[in-house]
């Protein structure tokens, strides 16, 4: 019979050796023996079912960039072999041994040395990478959230895609923080137990593992549910996941290929990081092409025509329907003004938002600019958060201008704020029940014009 093999995705807490041992012994009873441990896939080969004993130990001096067991590891393995323990596989500091005896002598008998070895390995495998990645992830999320709140809170809360990415990002950060916290709690409890003459604390429990998988399942489901509310994401999301999987496969392929070359640890590490940089550069135009392809799938009416001014500059002319136009405010608009009417609308589980503008591109046109946003937000706390972030205006060079409360009665609004600028532009923030209106005018409106604005924009 041909030897059969299979590869399994194995996810476990890296300090949870007892769980790994039980898992491998269960696999052996089913007729599958470990052949190679990797990251994240492990290889098993089919064999006769057997009651084997496994042990996972830690060798902190080893590295994932080693082409194979180091001389010190082989010496350690020789000592273990004298007690019937055969080295099956190693991955960096992790070493996995198997023993065919029913009641073998344990490899590690000193709990203090065992804890020291585990902690030394975890510094490389967990504390260092997570200690770098988690702050970077939190900083990226914080900066993105801050910039979003500063410049575009309404478009953010009305976009399911951006909300989905936010949930995914903060969820992954929470998961990484939990892993770090869980290890540090286990380590400190085990250290106190060892100092009192006891053994390391037990690790994995079924409840904890179930809770972990449930959290990850809910996180991915919530993110996917938000992302897939946007029709284009039915194409974009599989494409993004496919490209990510392809990049990761290429990176892992380079990693294992370099290990087969039997280079030194430093050479393998340097070549691996160089390969990651090269692959990232290669995949960049691929992702850009993919983004352009996805953008082309977005529904867009496109401009109705193009106007070329006397100075050679061209302008797209849109004919979208707007709830409020300059004509509604009493301005005479002619073909010579070459007006463009552009509107954009989107909605999410939290809000519905629209942005509208009317711009005149005619060289001799005297029409003022008209730009406004409306957002229907039924959640009081979210509406207040958006209002607070909109109550200031960030102009050129990051200059901040604070809007001031003004009489809401002329606007027939529940609340009104205004930016008292000396320029012709007037920026207003209006509240009509659940609707926030951000209004930018190139003129100071009359009482009749304010009444027309209220009639057109309030819900």
Attribute tags:
46% helix; 459 residues; alpha+beta; single chain; three-stranded antiparallel sheet; elongated; 17 strands; 4 domains
Structure, explained:
The structure is a single chain. With 459 residues, the chain is an alpha+beta fold. The protein has four domains: 5-99, no CATH class; 110-230, no CATH class; 231-299; 305-457, 3-Layer(aba) Sandwich (Protein Transport Mog1p, Chain A), CATH 3.40.1000. 46% of the residues lie in helices and 20% in strands. It contains ten helices and 17 strands. It has helices at 17-29, 71-82, 111-151, 153-157, 160-195, 206-227, 233-260, 265-297, 380-390, 447-457, and strands spanning 5-9, 32-36, 41-46, 53-58, 86-91, 94-99, 305-308, 314-317, 339-347, 352-360, 370-376, 392-394, 400-402, 404-405, 415-419, 426-432, 435-441. The strands form five sheets. The protein has a seven-stranded antiparallel beta sheet with strand order 9-10-11-17-16-15-14. A hairpin with a 4-residue loop joins strand 9 (339-347) and strand 10 (352-360). Helix 5 runs antiparallel to helix 6 (206-227) and helix 7 (233-260) packs antiparallel against helix 8 (265-297). It is elongated and about 100 Å long. The termini are far apart. The model has no long low-confidence stretch (mean pLDDT 87).
């Amino acid at each position: 019979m041909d030897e059969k093999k299979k590869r399994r995705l194995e996810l476990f807490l890296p300090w949870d050796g007892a769980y790994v041992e039980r898992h491998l012994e269960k696999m052996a009873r089913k007729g599958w023996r470990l052949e190679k441990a990797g990251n994240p896939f492990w290889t098993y080969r089919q064999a006769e079912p057997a009651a084997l004993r496994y042990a996972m130990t830690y060798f902190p001096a080893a590295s994932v960039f080693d082409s194979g067991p180091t001389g010190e590891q082989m010496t350690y393995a020789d000592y273990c072999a004298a007690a019937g323990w055969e080295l099956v596989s190693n991955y960096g500091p992790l070493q996995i041994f198997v023993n065919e005896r029913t009641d073998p002598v344990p490899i590690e008998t000193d709990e203090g040395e065992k804890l020291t070895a585990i902690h030394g390995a975890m510094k490389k495998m967990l504390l260092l990478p997570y200690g770098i990645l988690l702050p970077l992830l939190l900083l990226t999320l914080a900066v993105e959230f801050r910039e979003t709140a500063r410049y575009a809170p309404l478009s953010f809360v009305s976009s399911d895609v951006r909300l989905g990415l936010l949930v995914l990002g903060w969820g992954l950060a929470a998961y990484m923080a939990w892993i770090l916290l869980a290890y540090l709690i286990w380590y400190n409890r085990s250290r106190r137990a060892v100092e009192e003459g006891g053994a390391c604390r037990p690790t994995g429990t079924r409840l904890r593992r179930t809770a972990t998988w449930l959290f990850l399942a809910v996180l991915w489901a919530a993110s996917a549910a938000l992302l897939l509310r946007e029709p284009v994401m039915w194409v974009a999301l599989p494409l993004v996941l496919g490209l990510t999987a392809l990049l990761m496969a290429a990176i892992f392929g380079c990693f294992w290929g370099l290990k087969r070359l039997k280079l030194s640890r430093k050479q393998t590490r340097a070549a691996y990081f160089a390969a990651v940089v090269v692959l990232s550069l290669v995949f960049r135009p691929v992702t850009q092409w993919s983004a352009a392809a996805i953008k082309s799938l977005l529904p867009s009416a496109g401009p109705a025509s193009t106007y070329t001014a006397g100075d050679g500059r061209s302008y797209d002319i849109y004919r979208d329907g707007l709830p409020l136009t300059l004509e509604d405010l009493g301005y005479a608009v002619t073909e010579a003004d070459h007006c463009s009417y552009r509107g954009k609308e989107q909605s999410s589980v939290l809000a519905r938002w629209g942005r509208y503008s009317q711009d005149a591109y005619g060289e001799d046109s005297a029409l003022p600019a008209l730009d406004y946003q409306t957002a229907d937000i039924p959640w009081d706390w979210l509406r207040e958060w958006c209002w607070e972030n909109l109550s200031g205006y960030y102009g050129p060079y990051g200059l901040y201008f604070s809007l001031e409360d003004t009489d809401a009665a002329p606007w027939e609004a529940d609340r009104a704020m205004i930016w008292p600028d000396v320029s012709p532009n007037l920026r207003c923030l209006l509240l009509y029940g659940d609707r926030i209106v951000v209004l930018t005018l190139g003129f100071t409106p009359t009482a009749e014009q304010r009444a027309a604005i209220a009639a057109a924009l309030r819900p």
